[in-house]
Specification:
Blueprint (H helix, E strand, L loop, with lengths): L19 H4 L3 H41 L18 H12 L6
Length: 103
Amino acid sequence: MNQIKWSNGIKPTKSNKSDKQLYIADNDDEINHEINHEINHEINQEINQEINNFSSNKREFVNDKINQRELIQNTCKNPFFESQDYIQHLSNQDEFLRPQKTN
């Protein structure tokens, strides 16, 4: 298995436990770290606000799109009743479908 190693050709040396004080950051570095942390926190808040705005805008967009749809009937509809109202159908029934006296 091939491995890639990032180095400048110098062999790494193991640090001692007593060298810990050399690696502790100075107060200036700590202040810079705090400032960077605050800036990163503000940037993360702005990004989260943008994400929330995008999701709410997307939600509003989809809601508007659904509201623009044409309403349809959920039940079966008699195709013969589409053009006329119920009273007209009753009069047609009386006139044409009920037997009349032929004497």
